[in-house]
Amino acid sequence: MENQTKIDRISNLPWDVLDIILVHLPLREAARTSVLSSKWRYKWTGLSQFVFDDKCIHSSMVDKAARWMEIMKIINKVQSSHSGPIEKFKLAAYCCPNHSDFDQWIAFLTKKGIKELIIQDFSFIKRFKLPSCVFCCPKLSCLELFGCIFKLPAFFKGFDCLKSLKLSQVFIVSDTLESLICNCPALERLTLLNIDHLAFVRIHNPNLKYLKLDSKFEDICFGYNPLLVSVDIRMIPMYGWTIPWRPEQGKFLANEDVPQRLPTMLNCLSALEIREVETLDEVHKPVMDFVISQCLYDFYLNQLKVVNIRGIVGTRTELEFIKLLLAHSPMLESMTIVKYSGERILESVLLQLERLQSM
């Protein structure tokens, strides 16, 4: 029987097929394919996606600066030989980036048609200034930023394709955040965590569906958000701050100023999560007057199915609000209430709530 020459079918696959295979490997394993043959030496450097996580770095390496140096070795090889687009970059390895190196890498990515730019938790002494080139990415659909200073350049006209935005431990002023949200017409998901210097939040985006906000701020204002179906807000009051400006239009959920009516966008909500930080005595009366006012009798949350309320202390205001939700949410399927402090809620009150739910 004649010896048949073995055919290297994998190496001869089209690059788009090889790219799909390699991006499903941890980056460290993809880089190891360089030893297979001379054909494979630089294949991994041409990937369309780069995910730098703890799998890229040996587990024994704990020094954060050294971990960044390991990442830079990979980045330098990619920059020197990469051809074609880079659609996704994710930094999720706990390290301490050099700001100059980081800026150069981000600038490189923005020239490669980046679609997903994800920068997660890392160690920093001071926040890095987000390079203005990030705002020149017309294909960007997912943006997650951590530990940066966020300022919009004068030339910024918007992210037309951005669907998901997450900012964590970012320095951004209220006006800038409002402008950013308004200029992302395709935005569906918005997450804001531990934002610095945020006096108020104004949410106005006709395509927004999911909102999560966990930060220090004084006021939140909902403008026109007809598709909003899920809201998760944890508000930490900023005592001693003076709010310099409040939008004239929109509906606020506030510490002091209570609106005359609830925002109509709440009719679209299917899930609601509320986490209370603390309750102030001076807030009780205006909120109480609002909750039991005549204007709420004809207000219904017709799409609301799931409610989670955490951190209540058992005030009358809180219980009246819970009663309101039960009585005015005809599609409600479940409500979870977690009480952190104070005396237990009286059984008679719980029975009253149960009767409202069964109505």
TrEMBL record:
Residues 301-337 form the FBD domain. It holds the Pfam family LRR_At5g56370. This is F-box domain-containing protein. Residues 10-46 form the F-box domain. It comes from Hevea brasiliensis. Residues 103-231 form the F-box/LRR-repeat protein 15/At3g58940/PEG3-like LRR domain.
